[in-house]
């Protein structure tokens, strides 16, 4: 059976992920994401109203024209998790393919919300939920099967899809860390990865997230971040002024920890910002998390401002607002607070806790720096980097190669410079660049089996 891989997006940057695998006449697409930095550099861009071709020209979504070079039919579109760099191009591109969107339950719900917000295109693809551990036949040949393996990441309900073929398995390894004591959900299923590496024809190809391949050591568990966060907030228990926290809106485990520690130090937590309301509200509705019954979630500007007025009236020392804006996004809640555009007034000595690390991309770094400076100008004290990454470091990559023992590896989720550390570590395991390490670019195809 012929096996061909099209590297469509995410092979020159962290963002706009999209990969297609052809096994015989059957094609499966993994991820359809957005490069958010290409949107943020423009003012007042409303992607939901834009044509896909304009977004492709902007470099914001994958250029999927290479799909015309693949001879076969798309049988499924499979987003690995609900981050925007993996799902936000679905409303722009999915309608081109007569195929269902297959994902885990939480991811499907976020995809549904993305589609509902789309103004330019009608997206009628079937939405199919499949749990981690589930399998699905692909095409009519009865020779290709899709499997979801549970992984841990900085968003709940993440999976790594595996495409089983007569030539061996294709493991699409974006995005994960090895967490054996997560705050929400099950640990990464390393037992299943080891089984896949040793059953049948083994693993033909492993496509790997190289975001942190250049960082030494092993990515800590989310439970480590929880302890760090708890220690930080407990140190503020006697402070009577304002404390504000920000984190990734989609990081439900981190939001849960913030809510718990706010109550522990005698403050009422409140979630503020549209994305905070969306991600946490969806997770609670699907029973992935249980928040206190009196937890307020407010997304619309008027309700947020009303909440800020209430906080100022009843005393900042009684509340812990958990807000959007950890990357310094211009329209996010924390950035507006720094500019003095909300009823919440920062005083000298107030605490701002960043339970997030800045995404290493020039636009984000610049916006985050500007946001922090605005907060400091108002006298705020910054508590930074109370966080653990959602991506494997060097030792995690070694563990995955040992578990899977793939014949070929394809680095992804980075630029050419970012691939270099992964090439070095794979080379130390006996792989060779150009032979079985395939460093590629967006828009290329790799023929693994002819």
TrEMBL record:
The principal location of this protein is cytoplasm
Q: Which terms are listed as keywords in the entry?
A: Cytoplasm, Exonuclease, Hydrolase, Metal-binding, Nuclease, RNA-binding, Zinc
According to the UniProt entry, its GO molecular function terms are: 5'-3' RNA exonuclease activity; RNA binding; zinc ion binding
GO cellular component terms, alphabetically, are: cytoplasm
InterPro entries the UniProt entry points to: Metallo-B-lactamas, RibonucZ/Hydroxyglut_hydro, RNase_J, RNase_J_2, RNase_J_arc, RNase_J_b_CASP
Query: Which species is this record about?
Result: Halorubrum vacuolatum
Q: Where does Zn(2+) 2 bind?
A: 85-86, 175, 413
Q: Which family does it belong to?
A: Belongs to the metallo-beta-lactamase superfamily. RNA-metabolizing metallo-beta-lactamase-like family. Archaeal RNase J subfamily.
Q: What does this protein do?
A: An RNase that has 5'-3' exonuclease activity. May be involved in RNA degradation.
Q: Where is substrate annotated to bind?
A: 387-391
| EC number per UniProt | 3.1.-.-
Name of the protein this chain belongs to: Ribonuclease J
Q: Please list the residue ranges annotated as the Metallo-beta-lactamase domain.
A: 15-228
| Cross-referenced Pfam families | Lactamase_B_2, RNase_J_b_CASP
What transmembrane ranges does the database entry give? none
The UniProt note on the cofactor reads as follows: Binds 2 Zn(2+) ions per subunit. It is not clear if Zn(2+) or Mg(2+) is physiologically important.
What are the BP-aspect GO terms?
Answer: RNA catabolic process
Give the location in the cell.
Cytoplasm
């Amino acid at each position: 059976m012929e096996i061909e891989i099209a590297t469509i997006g995410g092979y020159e940057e962290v963002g706009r992920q999209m990969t297609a695998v052809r096994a015989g006449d059957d094609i499966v697409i993994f991820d359809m994401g957005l490069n958010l930095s290409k949107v943020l550099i423009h003012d007042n861009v409303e992607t939901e109203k834009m044509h896909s071709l304009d977004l492709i020209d902007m470099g914001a979504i994958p250029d999927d024209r290479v799909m015309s070079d693949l001879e076969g039919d798309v049988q499924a579109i499979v987003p690995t998790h609900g981050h925007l760099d993996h799902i936000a191009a679905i409303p722009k591109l999915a309608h081109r393919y007569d195929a269902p969107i297959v994902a885990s339950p939480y991811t499907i719900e976020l995809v549904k919300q993305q589609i509902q917000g789309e103004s330019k295109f009608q997206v009628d693809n079937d939405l199919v939920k499949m749990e981690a551990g589930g399998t699905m036949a692909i095409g009519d040949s009865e020779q290709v099967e899709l499997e979801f393996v549970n992984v841990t990441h900085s968003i709940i309900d993440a999976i790594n899809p595996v495409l089983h073929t007569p030539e061996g398995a294709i493991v699409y390894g974006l995005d994960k860390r090895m967490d054996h004591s997560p705050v929400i959900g099950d640990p990464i299923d390393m037992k299943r990865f080891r089984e896949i590496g040793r059953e049948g024809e083994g693993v033909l190809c492993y496509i790997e997230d190289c975001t942190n391949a250049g960082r030494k050591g092993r990515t800590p568990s989310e439970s480590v971040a929880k302890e760090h966060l708890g220690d930080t907030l407990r140190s503020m228990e006697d402070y009577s002024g304002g404390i504000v926290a920000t984190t990734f809106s989609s990081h439900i485990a981190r939001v849960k920890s913030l809510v718990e520690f706010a109550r522990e130090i005698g403050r009422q937590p409140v979630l503020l910002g549209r994305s905070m309301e969306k991600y946490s509200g969806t997770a609670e509705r699907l029973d992935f998390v249980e928040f206190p019954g009196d937890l307020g979630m407010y997304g619309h500007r008027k309700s947020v401002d009303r909440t800020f007025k209430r906080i100022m009236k009843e005393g900042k020392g009684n509340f812990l607002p958990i807000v959007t804006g950890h990357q310094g996004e211009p329209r996010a809640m924390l950035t507006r607070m720094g500019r003095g555009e909300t009823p919440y007034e920062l005083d000298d000595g107030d605490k701002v806790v960043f339970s997030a690390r800045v995404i290493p991309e020039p636009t984000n770094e610049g916006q985050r720096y500007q946001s922090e400076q605005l907060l400091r100008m108002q006298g705020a004290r910054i508590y930074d980097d109370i966080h653990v990454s959602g991506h494997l470091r060097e030792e995690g990559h070694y563990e995955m190669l040992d578990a899977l023992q793939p014949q070929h590896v394809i680095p992804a989720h980075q630029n050419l410079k970012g691939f270099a550390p992964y090439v070095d570590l794979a080379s130390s395991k006996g792989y060779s660049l150009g032979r079985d390490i395939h460093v590629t670019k967006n828009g290329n195809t790799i023929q693994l089996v002819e």
